[in-house]
Amino acid sequence: MAAPADAGGLGNARSTSLALLRTGPAMTLLPHTHRPATSRPAWLATALAGVVVPAVAIGLLADAPPGLVAGPILATGLMGAGMIGAAAAGRLWIGVALALLTGAGLVLSGRMAGLLPPAHLLPAAFAMLVASVSFAARGALFARSMADKGWWIAVAVVAGEAAIIATAAARPGDLPEWLLVLLPAQWASAAIRAALGGASTLAAGAPLLALAGTAAATLLVARLWPSRWPYLVMFTTWLALSALVWHNPAP
Fold first, then answer.
1. What's the structural domain count of the chain?
2. CB of 134 closer than 8 Å to CB of 215
3. Staple partner for 191: which of 16, 127, 160, 243, CB 3.0–4.6 Å?
4. Please, are residues 189 and 72 in contact by the beta-carbon 8 Å criterion?
5. How far apart are CA 70 and CA 106, in angstroms?
6. Distances (CA, A) of 120 to 63, 86, 171, 249
7. Which residue range forms the structural domain that includes residue 188?
8. Phi, psi at residue 2, to the nearest 5°?
C-alpha cells in the first residue's frame, strides 16, 4: 500500500524538478539576453536619426562648400542607424548593415546635392566602414546590458554627440578641443572629412585607429557581460585613444 504513495511522491518531485528546470534558466538568462525590440518607436528612432535628419541637413546645406559639412552629416547618419539599429535588434551585424546602407544612401544624396566631391570616395568608404562597426558595437553593448531598453540609451547618446558635432561644424572654435577629441562621432567626422579632402588613410590614422580600438574594447565588454572588469579596459582604451587623437589630429 505504501508503494503508490511513494510513486506519487516521486512523480510530484519530478514535476517540481521539471518546473524548476523550465523557470530557472529563464530567470537566470533574463538579465543577460536581449529580445529584439519589436516596438515601432525603436525603429522609428533609427530611421529618424539615421536617415531623416541627415537627409534634411543635406537639403538645407546644399549651398555649403563641397566636403565642408559632409563629415558631420555622414557621421551622424552612420551613428544613428548603426548604434540605434544594433541596440534595437540586439545584433551587431544588423547595426553594421543598417549603417552601411544608410551611408550609401547619404553619399548618393550628397553627390546629387553637390555636397560631396566626386573623387576620394573609396578612402571615405573605408572610414565609413570602420565607423559603422564602432557605432554598432556600442549599440550591441547597450542591448546586452539594458535588454530591450538599450535603444533608449542609444538614442540619448546619438542625440548628444550629434548636437556637439553639429555645433562644432556650425561654429568652429566655440567648443573646447578636449571635448571634441573624446567623442567617437567627432573621430568619424574627422576621418570622413579628411578622406573626402584627399588625405591618405594614414593621415587620418589616429581617428580611424581610435574607432577600431574602441569597437574592439566595446565588443569585449559585451562578450564578457555581466562581468564588470572589462569596463575598466574599455574606458582606459577610450581615454588612451582620445589622447592619441589629441596629439595626432586628422588634417
1. 1
2. yes
3. 127
4. yes
5. 9
6. 20, 28, 26, 19
7. 37-247
8. -80, -25
186: cell is: 567627432
Check: CB of residue 74 under 8 Å from CB of residue 107: yes
Is 189 part of a structural domain of the chain? yes
d(CA 226, CA 139): 16
Angle separating helix axes 92-113 and 121-146, nearest 10 degrees:
140
In a domain, 220, yes or no: yes
Location of C-alpha cell 582604451: 237
Query: pLDDT of the chain along its 251 residues, tens only?
Result: 444 444 444 344 444 444 433 433 333 333 344 555 457 899 999 999 999 999 999 989 878 776 678 899 999 999 999 999 999 999 999 999 999 999 999 999 988 888 887 667 888 899 999 999 999 999 999 999 988 889 999 999 999 999 999 999 888 889 999 999 999 999 999 999 998 887 777 778 999 999 999 999 999 999 998 898 999 999 999 999 999 999 998 87
Residue 106 falls within a domain, yes or no? yes
Task: Determine, yes or no, domain membership for 118.
Answer: yes
